[in-house]
Amino acid sequence: MPDPRRNLKAAATADKIYATGGYDAAGNYANSNYEYDPVTDTWQVRANLPTARSNLAMGSVANKVYAIGGDPFQDKNESYDPDTDVWTTLAPMLTPRQHINCNVVDGKLYVIGGLSRQGVSDKNEVYDPESDTWRELSRLPRPRQGCGVAAVNGKVYVLGGVKEDAIVATVEAYDPVADAWEAKASIPLPVLEPGIAVMDGRIYVIGGQSYMEDALAGVLVYDPDKDQWSKASALPRPTQLAGVAALAGSLYILGGCNTAFKPFSNGLVGSLEQ
Fold it and tell me: In whole angstroms, what is the distance from residue 147 CA to residue 140 CA?
């Protein structure tokens, strides 16, 4: 990337990946918005995120990128149009939250858990870009922040995270049609702020923080059809607080940091095949 970043988020459109926000090397909130082209392996600096922040949620709908919430207790909802290189401010999130993630089902963004001013959150709020409206849904059964969020086959999976001082391995699936939650097989090790990617119907849990040292370089794979976990090959280096995106059969890990919280400027790429 043009500059080192950690606690950033990434989202893929049809052919590009956007790495946005986070902390810079000096520990300041970043408003950078960097575009990565996997075909040419090049970066471009694009229009800055209007609100500098870290630990936000990012998702992509209809070739637009959405940046939601983040530090410090933001309710901001801003969308980026790559075709015009313009950001638009949209309806704010109902509950200001940080250390959040989101994913997309049927063109809607589900923002789940996180940390609010009232403490660790169980909020489950959905944003509809077509109507620019938010709605509160059935709450997360086990409140937590820094959890991974993935969408597979019309369901939203919430993985790991932390409640107070306890990093957890809990996995719960949300069914938007039934507005109901279901417990699933736990992650083999507790993990906080993992990178999340979905490819071929499987969820990849990448790096992150844990009491267990191998989490930082570990890649775990969840098969929702079988409700089973397996291991993929480990990362070349321990990585946490990175932006992660899957595009055209490959997994991209952007920025992040090591165990000393020194941010990286370069990334990693690998096949998602086990």
Answer: 11
CATH class of 9-271: mainly beta
On the question of a cis peptide bond just before residue 72, with omega within 30 degrees of 0, the verdict is yes
**CA–CA separation, 267 vs 56, rounded Å?**
20
Is residue 53 a contact partner of residue 70, using CB atoms and an 8 Å limit? yes
Alpha-carbon distance values, 222 to 35, 159, 229 (Å): 29, 10, 5
Residue 200 structure tokens: 């071929």
Residue 196: CB atoms within 10 A of its CB come to: 23
Token pair belonging to 147: 């959890």
* pLDDT tops 60 at residue 76: yes
Find out whether 232 and 218 touch, Cβ atoms under 8 Å.
no
Q: Residue 134 has which token pair? A: 């938010």
pLDDT grade for 271, boundaries at 50, 70 and 90 = low
Q: Under DSSP, is residue 232 helix (H, G, I), strand (E, B) or coil?
A: strand
